[in-house]
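step 4 of 6: structure.
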Amino acid sequence: MPTSFFSPANNHCPEATELFSLPFNWMTTACMESGFRRLSGWLGLSPVASVSRAFTCRIASRPGIYGVLPVSAEPGNVGSAVFRLFYFPTSGDPLIDHVFLPAAVVMESSGAVSRIRDFPAHPDLCGLFGLGELRLSLTYPARGIALSLTSSTRSCTIVPEGLRAPDGLWIVPPGGLEEDLPTFEIARDLFRVLAAGVAVSLGKAPEVLAATETRATQRFRKIDGTLDVCPSRDAVVRTEALAWDEAALSPWLPLPLSVDADQYRVVWDVCGDGASNGNEWNPINKPSLIVLSGFLGAGKTTFLNQLIEFHLAHDRLVAVIQNEIGETGVDANLLEGEDSVLALDAGCVCCSLTGSLTRGVRKLNSTLSPEFIVLETTGLANPMNMIDEFSEIGDLVELSAVVAIVDASRHRENIAASDVAEQQIRAADVVVLNKCDLASDADRVEIESEIRAINPQAQIVFSTNGRVNPSLISNGLSRHVKNASSAHRLSDCHGTHHAHGVTHQDEGFTALRFRLADCIQREELMRVLAGSPSEVLRVKGIARFDDTSEPQIIQYVPGYADCQPAARDVKDEPFVLVIGRNLDAASLKELWRPLIEEDATA
Amino acid sequence: MTDDITVSRRNFVKGVATGAIGGTLASMGLYSYTESAYNRLPKVARSGQDFGAVRSVKVTAISETSWFNNAHLMEDIKKAGGLLVDQYTIGWGPFGNGKGPGKSSYDEGIAPIKNMLPNDLEAAWAIQAKQSLHPDNPGGFATLIEVEDLDGSKHKYLLDSGWSYTWMDESFKREGIDQMLRAGEIEGLVVSHEHFDHFWGLPVTMKYNNKLPMYIPNTFYKEGKQYIVDSGYKGDPKVADKELTLIRPGMMLVKFDVPIICRVFGELSLAFNVKDKGLVIVSGCNHQGILQMTSTVFSKLKYDNDRFYGLYGGLHISPFEDWDPKYDDLVISLGKWNFEKVGCNHCTGHLTAKKFVERGYPVVRGTARFRSSSPDYLGNGDSLVF
């Protein structure tokens, strides 16, 4: 394994700061392996401002936030470091009913989450939410590593007299438990992800799994509120250790008990064969597929550009399969990173898929092996029609989300104009309600409930200018995959029974393409756009004006027209694509005639 | 717990949390922490090292275009095996060997060009162009830093030496760096980290001055150390092995031990104390993340007005994703530190830079010349004075 989370400056015995840095560094390294996050459920970390190398983090299997705090280190030939682990159950986490009452109050207070980001600076947070200890040990110079977790299997506090609220109601019955947490389990959920991080960054699974147990205590809350400690009847303090080198275990021996290896399956899963070789097939290298739909002019390309840049900033490649109505590519010209865009054959991917998506995905996997593939469908695509195809490409990609971009300013008109607009919402895992700045608050609330009525399962995200953090939409699996695996079809779970979903041809949508003159006047273009009849739902294209040498991208949806310089060199001839329903080709051609290149209507 | 009690417990908790039930917890004696409380916590202290001051710092982007096509770069990395793969094996110039992605090595790559370094760079790169991946893609990152001391004297440094021999030589000539190096006007080269786009153009600096002081982090791999020798360097690199290394009064190297993609480890950033203004941070990539950078200098250094004044370089979004997607937004977080002047480029991202400008952050925009791609970047040939 060429990369390591260890510093190559290895001519000295690691110091305390280096030992403290290791969890931080191995998780950073592990995230470089594409697919690690998805397989392990790691959701990311945030460094703590007040204590170097402390961090907060989250994992998919718990709603709350974990804290990892370095507390002591002993450098040496078997160096070791101790970290305290914390778990903060956020509002809505069922565990909040089982933590200390003051802890529950802290978590329900406003600003709790932002205080947690710097939990070592807050005594109440450190005092109330401790889980146990993570230890690591490291041999020098061999750099064998071992990890262990020590925590009580059950942490509970009995209140013999019970506790009443001021209104007289019992909040803890006499002899009941104020606090009752499966502390070890909570801690192990994080511990196994951290161990998976070591495994993937070392490129190998641990050699030893072992455990030991000692007696645990439990607490009594006395009548004056103070706590008494006595031996627990059922709980034990358990230590589970994983070692990549047996020598590193020496500080914690003996470890006479065995460990259920199933609990650590993910540690082996993440370092499956070829984990470091992107060319071989391996689940860790399977790209996530995001299907992007949205009615004409809703802001799909704007959103997609943000997504591409976000992932690029995290060194992840997004490839795009574009499928446009009409012949060519305005949209490809609008996208960042044009070389990772694959345009599918003309025609609508959802009306005439016939394997073209599969071919496109195969091609991208073999040439670029991206982490994400976005299928950007036409504004008139009905993702319902693609569901079958998704199940067929399950070997090649993980369908991560079907996203529908909805134009908040034109939602009603679009829904009225086309069943496709509604179907897009129905099929979505995530609905991005875009252009919120152009809708009143009241409208937004109403549209949100309309969307909920169409699709109660979808997550709704609000945005302006397509600005949505892509992590919100690309963590996890689409429900279509989950449904497929439980033998549900999308149409069944919504109670609709389209043998085939409605297509845009059924609805009378067409696109007209006009070749524009090489040099036109801006005012003239704006006049023509403003004169578009109501059947026209979208115009896009490329124009060259007499007042500027740069090619301009034309954008039009009803009520909005704009021309912006193209972000890059555009080599296409000037043209427009006019998309709408029941278009009258002759009268539209008449409207555009002043701008059309003579005898060059395409 | 029965349902009724759960409900009354929740109502009680929410009532106390929102202040509807006041003072109750204390009167019930409930604020006693568990025994694990707070007894072994590390102390948060600002050591506040005084490191002098400078009158001004001027940065000029010699080249911020590290490569010209992201998709080609990522494609090469992916084909070589992904982000964990050793950069010397990927197959890029000057270490390509013609065997394809992931099959290259330092020794095989450098063998045919070793004797051409550092003087015959055009020929060396031409050989590599035939046996490396996407040979037209490399550009490079290099910045000229001009420090004005409190006594008015000027001192020049280079931060990084780029990647492509031909592109960097052209960029050096465009900005007159070749003459400055020849004349001995440049007092040091700081190599921020071992990455291809910051370090592999080292022979271009060596061509004009192979004895200037060179600062590297102590985390270079053996290939990187060998390359310094093979590039024709005749000096002794100053190896930064501590978190802080003073270069001159008011100019501090700050070392971060972080793993970086393509088997690189550790990055050096620069911190300046500009008199009467505050702290200025100049970085190559900021792989440590802005938060790590700011919290380190906040706790370790003393600077005028106790404020962050300026920021320059690639503002790499934090290398680790935040657990809260809503929070993972450099655009919002940059606002918190209230910098007065920001120059960004390189790995910042066009849309991100554009959003800084739209939010009214004090971004010094550039001129988008010499293949720099956005006017929101402090681009190739653009300068900024702190």
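step 5 of 6: annotate
 - The first strand of chain B starts at residue 49 and ends at 50.
 - Residues 86 and 102 of chain B are 8 Å apart (CA to CA).
step 6 of 6: archive
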